[in-house]
Amino acid sequence: MADIAIVGAGFVGLINAVGLAELGHHVAVIEADENKVESLSRDRMPVYEPDLQDLWQAHRKAGTIHITASYTEALADRQFCFIAVGTPAGLDGVPDLRNFYAAVDTIVAAASNPLTIVIKSTVPVGTAEQVQARMALPKNGSRNAAPVVSNPEFLSEGRGVSDFFHPDRIIIGSDSREVGGDVAQLYAATGVPEVFCDNRTAEMIKYVSNAFLATKISLINEIAWICEHLKVDVNGVAAAVGMDNRIGPAFLRAGLGWGGSCFPKDLTALSRMASQAGVSHDVLDAVATTNHRQPRMLVDQVKDLLGTLDGKTIGVLGLSFKPGTNDLRDSPSISLTTRLQTEGCIIRAYDPKAMDDAAGVLSGVTFCASAYETARGCDAVVLATDWPEFKELDLKKLGSLMKQPVFLDGRNMFDPQEASDAGLIYSGVGRGHSARLGRIDRQSVHP
Length: 447
Ligand code: UGA
What we know:
Blueprint: E1 3-7, H1 11-22, E2 26-30, H2 34-41, H3 52-62, E3 65-68, H4 71-75, E4 80-83, H5 98-110, E5 116-119, H6 127-136, E6 148-150, H7 160-165, E7 170-173, H8 177-186, E8 194-197, H9 199-230, H10 234-241, H11 263-276, H12 282-306, E9 313-317, H13 332-342, E10 346-350, H14 355-361, E11 365-367, H15 371-375, E12 380-383, H16 388-391, H17 395-401, E13 406-409, H18 416-421, E14 425-427, H19 442-445
Parallel strand pairs: 1-2, 1-4, 2-3, 4-5, 5-6, 7-8, 9-10, 9-12, 10-11, 12-13, 13-14
Bound molecules: uridine-5'-diphosphate-glucuronic acid.
The site of uridine-5'-diphosphate-glucuronic acid has 22 residues, from helix 9 and helix 11.
């Protein structure tokens, strides 16, 4: 059992806190924002994440986790200090490391005993070396150099707690096998294989993993539009292509595109690192360009189906960037919604978890209590985020509430034939069905 401090009570910091506490360690979470400290001391989570609150509450009660704003208090007698602060895109897409280095400097000044620094934040290649150099500098007369281990996270929002316990591998980047081994030991109870490497390699693995996943999605999205025109269903193609072990089935779901707080910023950061090194990054650029195009393509599809968008009422189902989270950052659904508004559409919207946050991001939208309520009186409904509850929708009922049953499945959740049998004028992303399922009969839609 180890004594661990974690700087940053965001998604990554909190998941690691409850995860490490579950593995038997004692965790002190350091958070600069006093409001967050106050909320967390009352077990109120700043992010929605399945199982997080229950575990947090249980460990706080048991005394195996505590939250504080004081570095000095949290670092006393700790062996490890994880840094899990945000590294958002700064000017020109280069990650903004101000909070990160502020945390490093404060740790240096506050630590009273030898510590191993563990970097969880996603940081550009070479950052661990910079931290090491910074720590070797005497600060306020205190401090000796501390070992720095790069231990990137692969937690995905909406299933972060489960990802913590079941990752495919744990990356341990360190110049010292012994120090790396100490950090690996913290996770020993998970039984997950470790990959030992140097810090730079660990930092690069994180960026490349996200870049690969985003590339898979962008490629299948491009393929989807080709499928659409060749009258082939991309879902069937992706399922069979994914059975090839060399390709794999994950991240081949065509749709509105990828968003969130990670892929967009990490892809840009990787491109910037390439530029700075004087290396071209055409594939990375294409992956981003294809993704930006997706919401626009969907808007064009709605326009194509309705003839015109001006004055039309559109229902948007799902606002978060993916299911299982209330996170709206770079959400393709938000991009789609604002584009529709620009085209003169009146928007009704529903999301199972992100309504409160959405009210702060979108204006002029009628937020509804359910998917059915959203559909009422709509000229078309667009499914933008694949929340499992949407799969349970009674499509017949949904269509009956609409002015006309035009349904754009932006996440290819439904079987085109079933949707059509339920009376919907269905269109998806690359389902190649438009012609087969009776491409909308303008007469019936615009009587
Ligand atoms: C991503 C990675 O999956 C994590 O491994 C990583 O730790 C994390 O970024 C990070 O860097 O912190 P996350 O952003 O939570 O996790 O979301 P993903 O599940 O990867 O989904 C990203 C986007 O891709 C979502 O908008 C989702 O809807 C979209 N997506 C995903 C598709 O459009 N198609 C797919 O087949 C899969």
